[in-house]
Amino acid sequence: MERLRKIIHIDMDAFFASVEQRDNPELRGKPVAVGGSAQRGVVAAASYEARKFGVKSALPSVTAKRHCPNLIFVKPRFDQYKRVSNQIREIFAEYTPLIEPLSLDEAYLDVTENLKGIETATEIARQIRQKVKEQTQLTASAGVSFNKFLAKTASDVNKPDGMFVIKPHQAQAFVEKLEVRRFFGIGKVTAEKMVKLGIFTGKELREKSLEYLVNHFGKAGQYYYEICRGEDHRQVNPERIRKSVGVENTFKTDYNEPDDLYRELDIILEELQKRLQRSKAYGKTVTLKIKYQDFEQITRSRTSQLLIMDQNTIGHMAYELLNALLPLNKGVRLMGVTLSNLEFADEIEGRQLTLDF
């Protein structure tokens, strides 16, 4: 019989917006959107005061302002968010080396065997949340269970500044009552498809056979079959690495002239270089992302057979991808460049580095 593990999922509450409210007392208690502006762009994060009006991440700024006329837009400070995130991870590391970050503001922790010899995961989660609040003046929510799916789902139950525990004997009843739209790994489109098939909760999902779920949802059907039974065999992976490093900018005005686009591309490439240097990452695939004024979005990619080790090559490939789209018959509101198929300096140290010119 597989040994049950003790898994905690920690999720910071409205992280970017909370950092801004902490650092600027004038923003406290007010609806705040990080990213975008009253006229353009999209919301990267929203405070809970803004969420009450339906403002959420990825919402166009114009729509957000319409929902919440008093919304305050704040420019993101990713360096500051990274510093705070590192501070929080240092707290995690006091309890376990098995930490799997999902983003700057959330992570899985395996505390089956913890560094402090604490008997229960619930107590560890309580201590972590308390230390986070004391050291950062920010709140975190936690989910505690015996696998990643349940811990992730549990962390959302008592948000913000809350904790929820799902013990082994409680798992089946919890999952059966859970609406499919709240299942981690089931997106909006899939949830709508399930509802049309008469699947509203985990109970109806469990009633479907594996064959039925695979026929209707492809390979993901196996995952749905397992999670509706409270099963998730994925381990907490501290070696989890980023899949890509990228930068994108939303412009103040729409551009379709080549000189304007080249200028903005240079700005993006300069910032991308800084991020690659900080992460000590190299890659093989360069992707250009374009979003037009009518919100149509396209991507174009090129992949090198060899690892790209210099910024000039990334820039050359990005320029070629842009040139292939010119001339444009409509304005561009957003452009981005991403490097993927990554390897990191500590992985390739000692191997001969191949420069791709």
Task: Return residue spans where pLDDT drops below 50 for at least 5 consecutive residues.
Answer: 348-357
The helix tally amounts to 14
CATH class of the largest domain: Alpha Beta
Chain-averaged pLDDT: 90
**What can be said about the biggest beta sheet?**
5 strands, mixed
Report the CATH superfamily of the largest domain: Reverse transcriptase/Diguanylate cyclase domain
CATH architecture of the largest domain: 2-Layer Sandwich
Strand content: 15-25%
Distance between the termini: 54 Å
Order of helices and strands: EHEEHHEHEEHEHEHHHHHEHEEHEEH
Structural class estimated from helices and strands: alpha+beta
What is the number of beta strands?
A: 13
Give the overall shape. Answer: globular
The strand line-up of the biggest sheet is 5-6-1-7-8
Strand and helix map with partners:
Elements: E1 7-12, H1 15-23, E2 32-34, E3 45-46, H2 48-51, H3 61-67, E4 72-74, H4 78-92, E5 99-103, E6 106-110, H5 121-136, E7 140-145, H6 148-154, E8 163-165, H7 171-177, H8 188-196, H9 202-206, H10 210-217, H11 220-227, E9 244-255, H12 258-279, E10 281-292, E11 297-308, H13 311-323, E12 332-340, E13 343-344, H14 345-348
Parallel strand pairs: 2-4, 7-8
Antiparallel strand pairs: 1-6, 1-7, 2-3, 5-6, 9-12, 10-11, 10-12, 10-13
Helix pairs in contact: 4-5, 10-11, 12-13
Provide an overview of this structure.
This protein is of the alpha+beta class and 357 residues long. The protein folds into three domains: 1-166, Reverse transcriptase/Diguanylate cyclase domain (Alpha-Beta Plaits), CATH 3.30.70.270; 170-227, Orthogonal Bundle (DNA polymerase, domain 1), CATH 1.10.150.20; 244-348, Dna Ligase, domain 1, CATH 3.30.1490.100. It contains 14 helices and 13 strands. It has helices spanning 15-23, 48-51, 61-67, 78-92, 121-136, 148-154, 171-177, 188-196, 202-206, 210-217, 220-227, 258-279, 311-323, 345-348; strands spanning 7-12, 32-34, 45-46, 72-74, 99-103, 106-110, 140-145, 163-165, 244-255, 281-292, 297-308, 332-340, 343-344. The strands form three sheets. The chain has a five-stranded mixed beta sheet. Helix 6 (148-154) links the parallel strand 7 and strand 8. Helix 4 (78-92) runs antiparallel to helix 5 (121-136) and helix 10 (210-217) crosses helix 11 (220-227). The radius of gyration is 23 Å and the shape is globular. The termini are far apart. One of its GO terms (cellular component) is cytosol.
